[in-house]
Design a protein that fits this description.
By secondary structure, this protein is mainly alpha-helical. The protein has 24 helices and no strands.
């Protein structure tokens, strides 16, 4: 009897091991399937490259490619310089010094992120144009108007920088607040001055945080289409649109997309390499930094220095758009515009649900799988954010168009049924593209929240024989719902602002606020673009305020 009991226990253990192995393989397969689903656009572009370039490729290489490369790298260099000065400078001032309205300016500095770069471009073009706001002010003051031409690559660099510097500001401020306290105390005890401490100590140690924010800026710079097209500056993204739509050569657009992907991933590798070279350990004791007060004159000077980027990056564009909205409200704000807004919000909401669902599945399938390396492979699923929207759109059009053509031919030859496109040119392809592009936006807040949940909690549930899904919904979901909610909000706003991807993939009968604003501006009706632009801006302020609260809490 005892021997039979032992054999029963052995069989039971073996059965559990087989079930565990089967479950591990299943979760690994599901994880790989999601990663393949998300990386399909890049794979499609890589496969398409094997077919060779289009007929106009060599003409483009001889006449335009140097212009694309030169302008893109000029924007990378100029924007890097401007956002580093603005973002790091303001971050240090609000973290290190006390001055009037510091707390208010601390979150106001994040607000330029709520305005898409192409909308800032429209606003500044109106400010500096003949008959624009600056011209009206000069006339009111009886002064001669001196027009500043910003419709060039220098003006584009300014517009992109003043709207994107908060990426560097946020990452730099987080480092200064969490790490600077003890470091500055040690520096002061050694008799090192404030100026020398900042440049010789704080800047080198903050380099990983600064570069992390800068990489996000450069990705947005390379992704920009609306501002570059409006200012007439040739970049890789405008070249991709020209090759696909004007020249009608997908092969040439694919080759340009491949070059752009190479540049983006080179930037990512540089960021990864430099991050390894500097290690800073967190310390709860160094969380708080003692702010210096200084004289009244110096306090007012710091206040002005911090206020200027807020005025340039947020208040001037919003004021210009508000003035235009007042002039054009009767022509633009009607029932059709309300329908357009609801359509935009509906697409953004559906996309946020789909993206958050896939991000959550990717995180937990990889977590439930004990296969070696599967978690590392799952990280490839969030690389879509590093790929410009135009490239994602091209990468999705290739496989969906090929599948639809195959399906139409197959249905006609086998069953004599005439069908249309199932995916290409539909909302399905558009939502899929958004999910690929913004998977990282949903993945990061969910993962950071999930990591705070102790493994002992779900492990205890599983020891009681409860399955993974039931454990997740009963125990883990209530603990990570804040991260899921924040992910939905962030994806919602990013979808609302996205322009190049939407322009390529949106169905003919579908429109969004971003596309409508772009269409108005392209038709020389930039004043009419104000109301859809303001709808985007005011909706986008929600995650900005949410982000600031998270930073304060952390």
């Amino acid at each position: 009897m005892k021997q039979a009991g032992n054999n029963s226990d052995i069989f039971s253990i073996k059965a559990r091991l087989r079930r565990l192995k089967r479950d591990t393989n299943r979760w690994s397969i599901f994880t790989l399937a999601i990663v393949l689903f998300i990386t399909l656009p890049v794979i499609a572009i890589a496969v398409k490259l094997l077919e060779g370039p289009g007929e106009t490729w060599w003409h483009l290489v001889d006449n335009l490619l140097v212009d694309y490369i030169g302008n893109s790298f000029f924007l990378i260099f100029a924007c890097s310089l401007l956002v580093l000065i603005t973002g790091v400078g303001t971050a240090w001032l609000v973290a290190r010094f006390e001055f009037p309205f510091r707390k208010q300016l601390e979150w106001l500095l994040i607000l330029p992120l709520a305005i898409p770069s192409y909308i800032v471009a429209y606003a500044y073009a109106g400010v500096f144009d003949y008959g624009g706001s600056l011209d009206l002010i000069f006339r009111f003051l009886n002064l001669e108007f001196i027009r500043i031409d910003i419709m060039n690559k220098y003006g584009l660099a300014y517009v992109l920088s003043i709207s994107l510097f908060p990426y560097v500001y946020v990452s730099s401020r987080a480092f200064f607040l969490n790490q600077a306290g003890n470091l500055l105390e040690a520096s002061t005890m050694l008799g090192v001055g404030e100026f020398k401490s900042f440049f010789r100590l704080m800047l080198p140690l903050a380099r990983p945080a600064i570069i992390a924010g800068l990489i996000l800026v450069l990705m947005e710079v390379l992704n920009d289409y609306g501002a570059a097209q409006y200012f007439g500056v040739n970049t890789f993204t405008t070249g991709i649109f020209r090759a696909w739509f004007s020249l009608e050569e997908p092969e040439t657009a694919v080759y340009l997309s491949a070059l752009l992907i190479f540049i983006v991933f080179a930037l990512i590798l540089i960021e990864k390499w430099q991050r390894k070279s500097v290690q800073v350990s967190g310390n709860r004791a160094s969380r708080y930094i003692h702010r210096k007060t200084g004289t009244r004159l110096m306090q007012n000077l710091k206040f002005l220095l911090v206020l200027i980027p807020v005025i340039l990056g947020f208040f001037i564009p919003v004021a210009q758009l508000g003035y235009w909205a007042f002039l054009t409200a009767e022509q633009v704000f009607d029932f059709n515009f309300i329908q357009l807004s609801l359509q935009s919000f509906g697409i953004a909401f559906i996309t946020s649900l789909v993206t958050v669902l896939f991000a959550t599945l990717l995180i937990y399938f990889a977590k439930w799988s004990n296969t070696s390396g599967i978690k590392s492979i799952s990280k490839f699923g969030v690389l879509g954010y590093a790929i410009p929207g135009a490239v994602v759109a091209i990468g999705i059009m290739i496989p969906t168009l090929a599948f639809d053509k195959w399906f139409i031919v197959t249905m006609d030859s086998l069953f004599g049924i005439k069908t249309g496109f199932l995916f290409n040119g539909t909302l399905v392809a558009l939502v899929y593209a958004y999910s690929v592009r913004f998977m990282a936006v949903a993945h990061n807040p969910i993962e950071s929240t999930a990591l705070k949940v102790s493994n002992s909690i779900p492990d205890s549930s599983k020891m009681l024989g409860v399955g993974n899904f039931k454990t997740f919904f009963k125990i883990e979901f209530p603990l990570i719902k804040t991260g899921i909610l924040s992910a939905m909000i962030l994806v919602f706003i990013d979808v609302l602002k996205e322009l190049p991807l939407t322009l390529i993939l949106k169905p003919f009968h579908v429109n969004t606020l971003a596309v409508k604003a772009f269409e108005y501006a392209s038709d020389e009706m930039v004043m009419e673009a104000a109301i859809p632009s303001l709808f985007i801006i005011f909706t986008a302020t929600i995650p900005v305020i949410f982000l600031n609260k998270l930073l304060i809490k952390d």
